[in-house]
Design brief:
The complex is a heterodimer of chains A (about 850) and B (about 550). With about 850 residues, chain A is α+β, with helices and mostly antiparallel strands. Chain A is about 45% helix and about 10% strand. Chain A folds into five domains: about 150 residues, no CATH class; about 110 residues, no CATH class; about 230 residues, no CATH class; about 50 residues; about 80 residues, Roll (SH3 type barrels), CATH 2.30.30. In chain A, a hairpin with a 4-residue loop joins strand 14 and strand 15. With about 550 residues, chain B is of the alpha/beta class. Chain B folds into four domains: about 90 residues, no CATH class; about 70 residues, no CATH class; about 170 residues, P-loop containing nucleotide triphosphate hydrolases (Rossmann fold, 3-Layer(aba) Sandwich); about 180 residues, Rossmann fold. In chain B, about 35% of the residues lie in helices and about 20% in strands. Chain B is built from 21 helices and 25 strands. In chain B, a hairpin with a 2-residue loop joins strand 7 and strand 8. The longest helix of chain B has 15 residues. Classes of the chains: A alpha+beta (about 850), B alpha/beta (about 550). At the A-B interface, helix 17 and helix 30 of A face strand 2, helix 4 and helix 21 of B.
Chain lengths: ~850, ~550
């Protein structure tokens, strides 16, 4: 890994001329950091640094990187984009905070200069690390696609609200008009348009001279400028392109137009040139500059202990809720809809079962599904049923079970809350159905919890307190805006806080200790376990036939009680009520009255109340007086002696006959077998109609075949691990050495043209060459394979390289068209 | 940790009463939680929207409620419950009934969408007039009760700022010579007077009449008192003359026999609901005077027509008195919205502990029917089954044994079926009071019982309520109105007046084993069991 570093160091003496060159000069760590920050560049691993630099300059990759910048870093990039190429760090600082001795515009928010100065190097370093910016501090250069994206123009002033530069706004203006503007500002005429523009730009950049010129302006003109100064920089005026001279100027607009202080941007509108806007703003690109994230406020401080305990209680409830839902669905699994998902009626039923809203029910259901505990069983009449993983989950202790739920939730892209909202076709979305994935969800969840984790323990903050900070950290990741004007992030933030509370990730709004472990990637189970209440081994029996378990019970006790009594109320405690039915249920399950009495006496803190003892004895006294059994067939005969004979016959043993009454025998064998055996024994039995058969059915717990849980939809490529990064960096270095050693000139020269062959260059070189051609406006010769597979050569004037396509003027077909990059075999220069 | 309270996710609160903090906790949660059950060890309270709104009306806010729950709870309080408490309490007071200087009674809002929502309801539309401004709508004064009731059902309870009419003033004072209002009675009166209108729940024998009298002394205005029957009306009159500055002439009786309207008028429910030619002939009594206070005795028995009329009386102060706010028709909610919320409630056992009602020994006597009775029972028509098993001859013999056991004690035998009572009267050689017994005869018999001339009295359900028989120490119940919980409580109440010598009362319920009688008895006992009365079960053979 040392060899690749030594080569670039040799060229350090002179400043790098390209991004690739600068990357070559960066250490392996820096390249690894770049790839970690922008993992999309790793797919596939670039062959060398030239290819890497071409790929990271592509518009799609740049947009993705910009989306993940915080607000200040983005503002730095925007300031750089508004400044001329090669601006210094000082220039950027002045653009953000305003030059030291210039009076700021009254409309600008005050800026903490020291904070900007302090935060700026880190912001530049971030941009540099992500290779959005390169070059020394004295001449900072944005990657072209970044500049194109962020540079303000008349149509797209961006967040700065600035317009195009004077030079950009006057492109295409007639030389005569430029001379008119020179005259209007009182400058001497120049020989050609280029020098005219230079002279005028110089005037706009000169604070003193421009100030003097503006002092002559009529007051109304000042008012006009004032309206455009913070953007949008365009205003509509009739006939903006009129060639009015300073002498003819009548209106304030005309006064400004005649001096080039407003420039026509289209026939009906004028634009304020960027230089003038900056002058009026007191040199600042942004009205407000936020060098640091806003503090999360207001917050409520609570006792961290209370928060942890509340969260732990809720965690136990969460585990119980999922168990309750899946236990219920074990016996009566709901069918899947034809379009996938769960019917509205089943959702309502689940909400009633869980004693919550439908939104909450959808959340639990989605969570169980994402955790792999619930899946469609794949049968013909498909139903949602617990998976075998659920059985394994049940065996774990509460803390471990919670860990699975919490981990799943943190990474899940499925958003149960969206259930019931209209989909693209206006139909309500079904729980467990399609279209519930939101790639933004996990990042918002993590961001919210991270912000909460930054607060002191026990501190709670609501969505309104958190959102400003969330917006600062990722200003461009808000997601689509809904009809109520709130974007997806706003909604997700509210949901995240609600769900975190439901799940026991937070307690009364404050992040709990187990969740901190979860965020740090540690195992939260050991943190949670001691916070959960200790299971009890006793209950309180009351004379009104209730039993109260003042806390969670040991499992065997809970099961025994649930058998002998009905559960009336759940929560921290459990209230059981003994009824004749419930006692009968226990007796049916094989317990005896004495057994029950002893069990209650053993586990009760109080003596068994007399009414309860009476209830058990009363039910027991009548229990079992009537007997019910199952038989597959019967044999009846008016002559008891004949039945005795059959019963005594050894050949009838296999029938397992039993005398129920002197004239009735019950058989475990079916009627057919009974008939056949009796006939072999020499009797002549007659069959009776099938009535009287007892068929026992027991509901079977449904399970799906083994299922893998659904994976979160990735929001871009996965986070690369260190091993992958190291391998990638090594591969890139190796490729780079090969490329730079063998071929100095990446673009095929005239030599290959002489052979009249189709140009052939490596894909990365092609991309780099085309990008250069766009930048310099050069004509290029390409080899191209069309959709039929025929190769051809074309001469094109590339206009734009974006999204895998080149937009260019094609000299062959004499029209502007797009070429797929992957069909271009190579690029070569065109000899003029 | 280790608080006395366990907060359940179904909004019930379990209070462990042996805990040292239990009494303190009970005081804190009482304003917003309803006591549902009070058996021996763990009391159950329920947090209801109504309770939370009453707490708001009494000046408590959500933060206080949440803090109380969190502070006393043994386990973490479910978050959903805390959110629900805050949400529910925030609903109160968004709508307000107010007196407008120009328009009279109006409904105003601090939250316009809420007003829009309720105005869209079909049930509200006929009760309101035109819109005065976006936040105000006219309400017909006669619909004040109705609209409050409907708004409560819609979940947007209105805060009533429209106040009360003072009514025609009339001097009434308590004459506390040789006796004093008990502390809980004073609390009850204060609670009622502070709240304006409402219901006071006190055990039978705990002196509800005095609460009424004290409320009248606060109001100092003409008062209409509605009671269950004439005997009860006379007792009210007697008590008022004895305990207040009122004289015989100031108190009128408005019943089937007499129609007096005086500054204080006592009317029976029966006469109020008597229909003549299809109309309620006596409802104008409500308008006969400018009443400043209306007292409803045994409010759980309030008949439906009186309900309807009470809705129109919202500008007058209303006091409801009852021992058991369990209506078998489930209309407790209507009582609350029309008379007013529960202003005071005390567990029976607590009053007993203070010595204001006699301790009672409740006993269920299980009678095993003879084989022939069982067979007859098994073949009886379903609707006749209860009557059959509760009136068997075996039972009668057990009653005889019980009466003999308590010879010398003042004993009441209470039953449902007249034939059975007549038969028992004959066997026990005791007078029988039933529906057809004239009021004069009743009074005479009660007087004889009080003065211990008679030791045993057989009574039908006419004696369920408001009969003051301080010396009764034994009650034997032979049959009842199926599974009525409040009847059981009322009957127990007949023997709960504190005894001169302080000894315990005995309450026997004679039940036929393995019949519906036993099922009904179990249901009847639920209220008292939940109030902490532990029934002993005894076999008739073991007596």
């Amino acid at each position: 890994m040392t060899a690749p570093q030594s080569a670039p160091r040799a060229t350090r003496a002179t400043a790098p001329r390209t991004l690739a060159e600068e990357l070559r000069g960066r250490g392996d760590e820096a390249v690894a950091a770049l790839l970690r920050a922008r993992p999309d560049l790793l797919n596939p691993v670039p062959t060398d640094l030239t290819q890497l630099s071409a790929r990271l300059s592509s518009r799609a990759s740049v947009l993705r990187a910009l989306e993940r910048l915080d607000r200040f870093t983005l503002q730095v990039a925007e300031a750089l984009a508004a400044a001329p190429e090669g601006a210094s760090e000082t220039t950027v600082r002045n653009l953000l905070a305003g030059p030291a001795r210039v009076k700021p515009h009254p409309g600008a928010e005050p800026v903490d200069r020291a904070a900007v100065t302090a935060a700026l190097p880190a912001a530049l370093a971030r941009l540099r690390e992500q290779a959005l910016l390169w070059g020394p501090d004295s001449a900072l250069r944005l990657v072209l696609a970044v500049r194109e994206t962020l540079a303000p123009s008349a149509l797209n002033p961006g967040r700065t609200g600035l317009g195009p530069t004077f030079a950009e706004a006057t492109a295409g203006m007639s030389p005569a008009r430029l001379q008119q503007l020179l005259a209007g500002t009182g400058l001497p005429p120049t020989p050609d348009p280029v020098t005219a523009v230079t002279a005028l730009t110089a005037l706009l950049g000169d604070r003193k001279r421009l100030g003097a010129l503006l002092d002559q302006a009529p007051p109304a003109a000042h008012g006009l400028l004032e309206r455009l100064v913070w953007g949008p920089p365009t205003g509509t005026v009739p006939d903006a392109a009129r060639q009015v001279t300073a002498e003819e100027a009548r209106s304030p607009v005309e006064w400004l137009l005649a001096r080039g202080l407003l420039l026509p941007s289209s026939p009906g509108s004028v634009v304020l040139p960027r230089e003038l806007a900056l002058h009026l703003r007191g040199g600042r690109t942004h009205r407000t500059v936020d060098p640091a994230p806003p503090a999360v406020a207001p917050v409520v401080g609570r006792d961290p202990d209370t928060a942890d305990r509340t969260a732990a209680g809720q965690a136990a409830t969460a585990v119980r809720t999922v168990e309750e839902l899946l236990e219920s669905w074990s016996l009566t699994p709901p069918p899947t809809l034809r379009a996938g998902g769960l019917g509205v009626r089943d959702l309502k039923r689940a909400a009633a079962l869980l004693e919550g809203t439908e939104g909450d029910a959808a959340f639990w259901i989605e969570l169980a599904h994402t955790a792999g505990l619930l899946a469609p069983d794949g049968e013909v009449d498909e139903v949602w049923a617990p998976t075998p993983a659920y059985d394994a989950w049940l065996q774990q202790d509460t803390a471990e079970r919670w860990t699975l739920l919490a981990r799943t939730w943190l990474a899940a892209t499925r958003v149960g809350r969206l259930t019931g909202t209209p989909d693209g076709k206006g139909r309500p979305r079904a729980a467990l159905g399609p279209e519930l994935d939101r790639t933004l969800a996990p990042s918002v969840r993590r961001a919210v919890l991270t912000r909460l984790a930054e607060l002191p323990p026990g501190t709670a903050a609501g969505p309104d307190a958190l959102l400003p900070a969330l917006r600062w950290h990722r200003p461009l990741r808000g997601g689509p805006t809904g009809p109520d004007g709130r974007d997806l992030r706003d909604q997700l933030t509210g949901w995240t806080l609600h769900e975190a509370e439901l799940l026991g990730v937070t307690g009364r709004g404050a992040l709990a200790a187990p969740a901190r472990a979860l965020l740090d990637g540690a195992d939260p189970a050991p943190v949670l376990a001691p916070l959960l209440p200790e299971p009890l081994d006793h209950v309180i029996l009351q004379p009104d036939l209730t039993a109260i378990a003042p806390g969670p019970l040991l499992t065997p006790l809970a099961q025994a009680l649930a058998l002998a009594a009905d559960i009336e109320s759940k929560g921290g405690a459990t209230v059981y009520r003994f009824t004749p039915d419930s006692v009968r249920r226990a007796l049916d399950a094989g317990r005896t009255a004495a057994d029950l009495q002893a069990f209650l006496a053993q586990h009760s803190r109080t003596p068994v109340p007399q009414p309860l003892a009476y209830l058990i004895d009363d039910v027991a006294r009548r229990h079992g007086v009537l007997r019910v059994g199952a038989a597959s067939s019967y044999l009846r005969c008016d002559d008891p002696r004949l039945l005795d004979e059959v019963l005594a016959d050894r050949r009838a043993a296999e029938l397992r006959l039993r005398l129920l009454a002197p004239t009735v025998l019950a058989a475990q064998a079916g009627p057919e077998t009974l008939l056949a055996v009796l006939r072999t024994m020499g009797y002549a039995p007659a069959a009776e109609s099938a009535e009287g058969d007892v068929v026992i059915t027991r509901p079977d717990s449904r399970r799906t075949p083994p299922r893998t849980p659904p994976q979160p939809v990735p929001d871009g490529p996965a986070r690369p691990d260190d091993a992958l990064l190291a391998a990638a960096v090594r591969a890139i270095r190796a490729g780079d050495r090969a490329a730079t050693a063998v071929r100095k000139d990446p673009v095929a020269g005239p030599a290959s043209r002489a052979s009249a062959a189709v140009p052939r260059t490596a894909a990365a070189d092609t991309l780099a060459a085309l990008q250069t051609a766009v930048l310099l406006g050069e004509r290029t010769w390409i080899g191209y394979i069309n959709a039929e597979g025929l190769s051809s050569q074309r001469v094109i004037d590339p206009v734009k390289v974006e999204g895998g396509f080149v937009t260019a003027y094609d000299h062959l077909s004499d029209e502007v068209r797009t070429f797929a990059l992957h069909r271009i075999t190579g690029v070569a220069e065109v000899e003029e | 940790m280790d608080g006395p309270l366990i907060v359940q996710s179904d909004k019930t609160l379990l209070l462990e009463i042996d805990h040292p903090l239990a009494a303190e906790c009970r005081r804190v949660i009482a304003p917003f939680a309803e006591l549902e059950r009070a058996p021996e060890h763990v009391h159950t309270y329920r947090v209801t929207p109504l309770g939370l709104w009453n707490a708001r009306a009494a000046g408590h806010d959500a933060e206080q409620v949440v803090d109380a729950l969190v502070k006393y709870s043994r386990y973490p309080v479910p978050h959903a419950l805390l959110v629900d408490v805050a949400d529910t309490m925030a609903r109160y007071g968004r709508l307000q009934l107010q007196k407008h200087p120009v328009h009279g009674l109006v409904l105003t809002t601090t939250d316009r969408p809420v007003l829009e929502e309720v105005l869209r309801s079909k049930k509200i539309a006929p009760l309101v007039g035109s819109r005065v401004d976006p936040d105000t709508v006219l309400v017909h004064p006669s619909e004040r009760g109705q609209i409050k009731q409907v708004l409560l059902k819609l979940g947007w309870p209105a805060e009533d700022h429209a106040g009360y009419v003072d009514g025609e003033a009339h001097p009434i004072d308590l004459r506390e010579d040789g006796w004093q209002l008990r502390p809980y009675q004073r609390h009850a009166v204060d609670g009622f007077w502070h709240g304006g209108s409402g219901v006071v729940v006190l055990p039978c024998g705990a002196g509800k009449t005095l609460v009424g009298a004290a409320a009248m002394a606060e109001a100092k205005s003409t008062t209409l008192i509605l009671v269950t029957n004439t005997v009860s009306a006379r007792q009210w009159k007697h008590e008022l003359v004895k305990r207040t500055s009122l004289t015989e002439d100031e108190i009128g009786e408005y019943s089937g026999t007499r129609k007096e309207i005086r500054p204080v008028t006592i009317a029976t429910y029966q006469v109020m609901t008597t229909k003549r030619k299809g109309v309620y002939a006596h409802l104008e009594l409500f308008d006969a005077r400018n009443w400043g206070l209306v007292v409803y005795d045994e409010v759980h028995l309030l008949p439906a027509p009186v309900f309807k009329f009470t809705a129109d009386l919202q500008a007058r102060r209303r006091l409801g008195l009852t021992a058991t706010l369990v209506r078998e028709d489930g209309r407790e909610g209507d009582v609350f919205s029309l008379i007013g919320p529960k202003r005071f409630d005390a567990p029976w056992k607590e009053i007993e502990a203070q010595g204001y009602i006699a301790p009672a020994d409740c006993c269920e006597v299980r009678v095993t029917l003879t084989d022939s009775e069982r067979l007859a029972y098994a073949t009886a028509e379903p609707e006749e089954k209860y009557r059959f098993c509760s009136t068997t001859a075996t039972k009668r013999r057990v009653v005889e044994r019980l009466v003999k056991k308590h010879e010398g004690d003042q004993t009441l035998v209470i039953g449902q079926y007249i034939d059975q009572l007549d038969e028992l009267g004959e066997v026990l050689d005791a007078p029988v009071i039933k529906g057809e017994t004239s009021n004069a005869q009743r009074e005479k018999l009660f007087e004889a019982f009080r003065s211990k001339e008679i030791g045993v009295l057989v009574v039908s359900k006419v004696a369920n309520f408001s009969i003051d028989l301080p010396e009764a120490t034994v009650a034997i119940q032979v049959s009842g109105t199926f599974g009525s919980r409040q009847e059981e409580a009322q009957r127990l109440g007949r023997v709960l007046r504190p005894k001169a010598d302080g000894h315990a009362a005995h309450f026997y319920s004679v039940v036929a084993r393995d019949t519906v009688d036993q099922d009904f008895a179990a249901h009847r006992q639920r209220f008292l069991a939940e109030q902490g009365y532990a029934y002993r079960i005894v076999d008739a053979d073991d007596l």
